[in-house]
Automatic annotation (TrEMBL):
Annotated active site: 290 (nucleophile)
Family: Belongs to the glycosyltransferase 6 family.
Gene3D superfamilies: Spore Coat Polysaccharide Biosynthesis Protein SpsA, Chain A
Entry binding sites for Mn(2+): 198, 200
Sites where the protein binds UDP-N-acetyl-alpha-D-galactosamine: 108-110, 113, 198-200
GO biological process, one term: carbohydrate metabolic process
Name of the protein this chain belongs to: ABO, alpha 1-3-N-acetylgalactosaminyltransferase and alpha 1-3-galactosyltransferase
GO MF term set: hexosyltransferase activity; metal ion binding
């Protein structure tokens, strides 16, 4: 009896003293298992005994392995970065269909840029928000040159006549003001989300509800792999778009951003106001509205980020990391199109 008790007490005190060693061993074994499972591309290479053991411990063993181990799929502030293979479109489509949402796609076709509309709209009909309601908002100074494109049910073209500006920088920057103006006046009554894009583009693969969130930005195809020090943020403190060298997460593209009408209203208001302050001060940000957008995203973090699958230019090559090229730049003959 006494002997037994003594033994038990010894075991207890041993456990108490060496609890950390046991703990460490357990943590270490799981970490090794984790890294091993990461290092294999498919589960088939992992011995079935380990798989069995993991199944017993975790009800969802797939959480041990990121869906895309080759890319960053989450930001430091825990919002998703959308790549092929990181979402289930079937489930998302069902959720958004139940909410019966309408998506507004804004695009500017000022002066010669109307030539891009046909391909833009035709490919959007094939790939953009398939199965959902869509309003195409076309801002143009040439309404009679907007092509007639056959649209599927639940999809409309809305032409918004706007003035043109003589400087191309102004055409590009004034998009913030115009989107802001129409968000309050019209979009808020007609759509749930806005997607704001360049027109010199074509859809080449599905772009669906997986992109939707309160506020989303897209990684610029030229900088998704770059370090912060290489980002081309505005670096002159005199500009409202100034971002200090030790701030910023990503370099975002002005050619693809969006969110709820309310969030896009707030973003475009802030960017437009900053552009006007710069104008009064006789300064223009290095990449116009893109610099202001990037400044905004430093201090208002997006709730979702799109990978460069959503904004690609084949002149940058075809890296393996891109499983899909969903939205592609259409090469333009600068002399023929610009400033005409
Ligand atoms: C014209 C000359 C130089 C730069 C821009 C323009 C221009 C732009 C124009 O004459 N008309 C026009 O509607 N835009 C809008 O601004 C288009 O929606 C265009 O996609 C967007 C951004 O300009 P891009 O596409 O020429 O800029 P990059 O950086 O894609 O070459
Ligand atoms: Mn463009």
């Amino acid at each position: 009896m006494r002997k037994d008790k003594g033994k038990r007490r010894w075991v207890k005190s041993y456990l108490r003293k060496h609890f950390h060693i046991l703990g460490c061993t357990v943590v270490l074994s799981f970490s090794l298992g984790y890294f091993w499972s990461m290092s294999n591309d498919t589960c088939q290479d992992t011995p079935s005994k380990i798989i069995e053991a993991l199944r017993k411990i975790y009800s969802r063993p797939q959480i041990l392995k990121p869906l895309r181990p080759d890319v960053l799929v989450m930001t430091p502030w825990f919002v998703p970065i959308v790549w092929e293979g990181t979402y289930n479109l079937e489930i998302l489509n069902e959720q958004f269909q139940q909410r019966n949402i309408t998506v507004g796609l804004t695009v500017f076709a000022i002066k010669k840029y109307v030539v891009f509309l046909k391909t833009f709209l035709e490919t959007a009909e094939m790939y953009f928000m398939v199965g959902h309601k869509v309003n195409y908002y076309i801002f143009t100074d040439r309404p009679q040159e907007v092509p007639k494109v056959e649209l599927k049910e639940g999809r409309n073209v809305v032409v918004l006549q706007v003035q043109n500006y003589s400087r191309w920088q102004e055409i590009s920057m004034r998009r913030m003001e115009m989107i802001n103006h129409f968000s309050q006046k019209q979009f808020i009554n007609e759509v749930d989300y806005l997607v704001c894009v360049d027109v010199d583009m074509r859809f080449n693969d599905l772009v669906g509800v997986e992109i939707l969130s309160n506020l989303f930005g897209t990684l610029h195809p030229g900088f998704y792999g770059s370090e912060r020090r290489s980002f081309t943020y505005e670096r002159r403190p005199a500009s409202q778009a100034y971002v200090p060298h030790d701030e910023g997460d990503f370099y975002y593209a002005a050619a693809f951003f969006g969110g709820t009408v309310k969030e896009v209203y707030k973003l475009t208001k802030k960017c437009h106001e900053a552009i006007m302050v710069d104008k009064d001060n006789g300064i223009e940000a290095i990449w116009q509205e893109e610099s202001h957008l990037n400044k905004y995203f430093v201090y208002h973090k997006p709730t979702k980020i799109l990978s460069p699958e959503y904004l690609w230019d084949d002149s940058l090559g075809r890296p393996q990391i891109l499983r899909k090229r969903r939205f592609l730049a259409v090469p333009k003959d600068h002399d023929a199109i610009k400033n005409k």
